[in-house]
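User: I'm writing a tutorial on reading structure tokens. Could you give me a worked example: one chain, its sequence, then its tokens, then a sentence or two explaining what the tokens reveal?
Assistant: Sure. Here is the example chain.
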Amino acid sequence: MPCLAIARFWHEGNSFSPVPTDLKSFAYEWYIGQEAPAIYRGTGTEIGGAVAFLEAHPEWHGTFLRLAGANPAGPLPRDTYETILAEILAGLRDGTWDAVFLSLHGAMVVEDMDLADYEIIRRVRAVIGPDIPLGVSFDLHANLDPRIAGLVNFAAGYKEHPHIDMNETALRVLDVLDRTVRGVLHPVGHIAKIDAILPSINMRTAEGPMAELEAFARALEFDPRILDVSPFGGFSYGDSTAAGAGAMVFADADAALAQSAAERVVAEMRHRLDRFYITLPNAADGIAQALASAVTPVAVVDAGDNPLSGGIADTPEMLRALFAAQPTVPVVFAFFADPDLVRRCVAAGEGAPIAGTLGGRISTSFGAPVPFSGRVLKITDGKYVNRGPVMQGLPMALGTTALIAVDTIRIIVTTECGSAHDPAFLDLHDIDMREVAVLCVKAKNHFRAAFRDICPVMIDIDAPGPAALDIASFPFRRAPPTLRPLRDARR
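And here are its predicted structure tokens:
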């Protein structure tokens, strides 16, 4: 019976977030061994795909090594990185494997280190040797070093943004690994890069330039010799020497074909480059548009503080603009992460008055705190299960949460910085979107996957935050200065 080792070390690093990703941040996903199938079975995740593969292929024996995942945030301390990676490598040394599957993001950032994902793959390959097939899944926003293609036997990235195909991506990698072990396939790959960092706000695959690139990629796969074509938009806020967009192609025993196909995708990306760069209204203008809309509910989406881009759920400008607008209709604001305020709400109790400030707790770099006075509506345990298509079925835990009312505005405050991309987040707080006129949310594209049928109007805004639209305004140090838009800012 062939043996498969499965490990996950997934993190999207925002180099400009003031909140580092320490070991406790991986409480989001921290599993090992036979507890994993029960957690991930049926979920829309890479490890959910691995569980499905093993159940469909009883001839394979799978061992789940450390599975670690954290929400996007600031860089990992070096000791956190080394601790998790050492556990994965020790697990690999303790077994005999016919294949290894790694679930990585591809845009991990580690303090005092460059190319963290490349280093994971390099060390895994050093442990398992040159002959064991190694497969890797990546996020569409990976910043990939081209040398990775020479270290793995096969890899593939998500094809959908919002990322509703995590499960399918893992299954694709595992299918090719299975056929590689059986000698049916001999994959070889190539990664090509483009000299640009793209804004992720305009990388949705339902429409626009990224949709066209994905369609071009799928057309290339009609050639039976091509096993996978993965365009990568890259992660806009990951400062590394591998920053920027690109494409990865794997072909069966044909390195020249893989290279030419990857370069063709990058050429198509270059033709569309100008269309990726867009402008957005500021917070005040976006909220004014929302309050004037004849169609409701309207979502005002603050991508600059999106926790799934390394946002901190602490920037105040959208709330400041909302208070200034003095809405008379029901509004929900999702959300702030403020454990001290949650503790105060718990101590006061449901129905009690509460006052203080919101935002600017972690850093005033993105704006000063906003004073408020209201009352506590609800306290929850912060636990729910995603029911939308992104990470569907995965349990979430935000710590204790509070719902605060300030006039017609209800504000969600959490202990942990999670994500408001799933309707279950609102269900937890007894929010019925049929009774809401405007939803102000710290989110980005993943939010759209579950809310596009709930909110017929969505207004993206640009406000100060760790994931704001103006990429060139961030202090990149490692990324090549020749990348657009960094090169334009230096002229």
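What the tokens reveal: The chain has two domains: 3-276, 283-468. Residues 283-468 form one domain.
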